[in-house]
Each structure stands twice: as structure tokens, then as C-alpha cells.
Design a protein that fits this description.
about 325 residues, 2 domains, globular
């Protein structure tokens, strides 16, 4: 039984019960439902209405006063969480949209597997707060909203065969999400995502000769924004410094969207080892398979904006 089926069953059971059952009933779950206790206790339901997902809380369960997706009693906010936001920025956006204190969202995000996270997330919400448009009840809590976002990720993962797809790609499911988060951070155009994913795979396959040498993971860990790490940044001993360390960073660096995850699962075919945003104003990305080709792209970038180094892999 997946997350959404469990939550719908919970809501259905509650509809026939008066008074509402004690929280302990939901917290004492069977082993096969381990990690879903909070989601069940919150009675969150994620229901698709076109491109919008409705987040129902306890007050919106069957038999509650509110009716219909357009009811103001049921949905006080419609918010779109963009792909590629860091979790810290996502929590700030949710706080601003709902009027609830940021600290409540931070505490909720720390509940890890209780939000319904898959086991391979290792209890960390970064990378699994799925970007989408959500219709949020005025009574929805931070726990409910974050659990709904995780439920939406789980549904996408099931629909796109993420676990088996990762195995076929020779990666773990978590590594797929990490790669997708980097692809999301580096791409200026969704059409480039499969090629960027291929560059990452090719570089990983060239270990120990090559490192990823990407700025975005390091900037994430240093809590900085931009497209280029400074020379001081590059001296960091951070585990996210892919200039010094081989392989992938230890975790996702943002919450990737559908296109980025699909690209990580099914990268384009090619021998590229480099990519350069040769004209960032036009989000033009070009790819190279050799160092000589790469240097030509660097020169093209310099001519376009006078940059001394490319934005992406160097």
C-alpha cells in the first residue's frame, strides 16, 4: 500500500467514527507502515484536481463542514512550489503563504521518516519536498503540508519506477535524487537536462581520473547563492566540495522537479564530459567531449560576457 492509499483509507475510517479516535491509534502502526505514522495521524490526503493538488487536514475529513475544492473554508491558499528551491527556501515560502511561523515548518521538516519519506531518503527531507501546485486548507498544519509533499514525491517515484530505474542505471535511488538536484541547479533550459545528466554520469564513470567539479553543491553547503564559487570557497573541506572530493555529494542540494528526475533516470546518450553556459542571457548551454572542445566553449563564453571561467563544469 502506498502513502496515498494509506491516507485515503485513514480518512475513510475516520468518517465512520464519532468521536474522532485518539492519536495513539495511528501512532501504533504495523511494521509495514513504519515511517507513515505522522502522515496517518495527520490524516493528510493528496488529491489531484487538474494540475493542482489538494491538501486535506483533519478538519477537512469526510463529514466536516467544508465542501468542494473551491470552498474558502477548505482551501485558504493556492501556492506553487517551484522546482529547484532549497528546502530552507521552500519552508520560508510555505511559512509566508500560510501565515504560520517558520519555526513550525523547520520542526516539522526534522521529523524525517514520520513524514512518509522513503527509506532511501535516510530521514532527510531535502530533495523530497516535491515541487507542485498545492491547494492548502486554512487548517492544514506544517506536518500535514510537508507530508503531502512527500506523498506527492512518492506517487511520482512509483509512477516513474524510480527504484528499479535507479538499479538499471547502476545507481541507488538516493543517488538518482542527488543527480537530479544537481541537474536542476545547473540547467537553464529543461531541454538540456538529459545532456547535463549524461555529463554527470560520464564524469562519475571516469573516477578516479575526474571529479565532478561543480559549483552548485558547494554553494549549497556554504549557504551561498550564485553560479560561481570563489577561490576561497574552493578551498573548503566540505563534503559537498566536488573539486576536492570524488563522486557525488552526500545528499540532494535542492528539491528537483519531474524533468530533472526523469533526466537523471534516463540521461541522453553521448560522450560529453563538459558543459558550458556559453550565453547565460539566452540560457544557451553547449557540450564538449574533449578538453580542446571545452576550451573553445570557454573562449565563446568569454567573448559573450567577458567571463574568465565557465559557469558549470571546469
Amino acid at each position: 500500500m502506498n502513502v496515498e492509499d494509506l491516507l485515503r483509507q485513514t480518512l475513510s475510517e475516520m468518517a465512520d467514527e464519532e468521536p474522532p479516535p485518539p492519536p495513539g491509534r495511528f501512532l501504533q502502526v504495523r511494521p509495514r507502515r513504519r515511517g507513515l505514522a505522522l502522515a496517518a495521524a495527520a490524516a493528510v490526503a493528496v488529491l489531484a484536481l487538474g494540475s493542482t493538488l489538494v491538501v486535506d487536514g483533519l478538519s477537512s475529513r469526510p463529514g466536516a463542514p467544508s465542501t468542494g475544492p473551491g470552498s474558502t473554508a477548505r482551501a485558504a491558499h493556492v501556492l506553487t512550489v517551484k522546482a529547484g528551491l532549497r528546502l530552507s527556501d521552500t519552508l520560508r515560502q510555505l511559512s509566508a503563504a500560510t501565515g504560520r511561523p517558520l519555526a513550525e515548518f523547520v520542526r516539522a521538516a526534522e521529523k524525517g521518516e514520520a513524514l512518509g519519506l522513503p527509506a532511501y531518503a535516510k530521514g532527510e527531507l531535502e530533495g523530497f519536498a516535491f515541487p507542485a501546485t498545492y491547494e492548502v486548507s486554512s487548517t492544514s498544519t506544517p506536518d500535514e503540508l510537508l507530508a503531502a509533499m512527500v506523498a506527492r514525491f512518492n506517487r511520482f517515484a512509483d509512477d516513474n519506477d524510480l527504484v528499479d530505474g535507479a538499479r538499471r542505471a547502476g545507481r541507488t535511488p538516493l543517488e538518482i535524487v542527488i543527480i537530479a538536484s544537481i541537474v536542476q541547479a545547473e540547467a537553464g533550459d529543461v531541454r538540456d537536462m538529459p545532456k547535463i545528466a549524461r555529463v554527470i554520469y560520464n564524469r562519475l564513470d571516469h573516477k578516479p581520473e575526474m571529479r565532478l567539479q561543480l559549483d552548485s553543491p558547494l554553494l549549497y553547503d556554504l549557504n551561498k547563492y550564485g553560479v560561481k564559487a570563489s577561490n576561497d570557497d574552493l578551498r573548503s573541506r566540505s563534503r559537498y566540495n566536488t573539486y576536492k572530493r570524488f563522486g557525488l555529494p552526500p545528499g540532494p542540494i535542492d528539491n528537483p522537479g519531474e524533468d530533472a528526475i526523469k533526466a537523471a533516470l534516463r540521461p541522453a546518450e553521448g560522450s560529453w564530459l563538459y558543459f558550458v553556459a556559453t550565453d547565460p542571457k539566452k540560457t544557451t548551454m553547449k557540450f564538449a567531449a574533449s578538453q580542446s572542445e571545452f576550451l573553445k566553449l570557454v573562449e565563446e563564453l568569454r567573448k559573450n560576457q567577458g567571463a574568465s571561467l565557465p559557469t558549470a563544469l571546469r
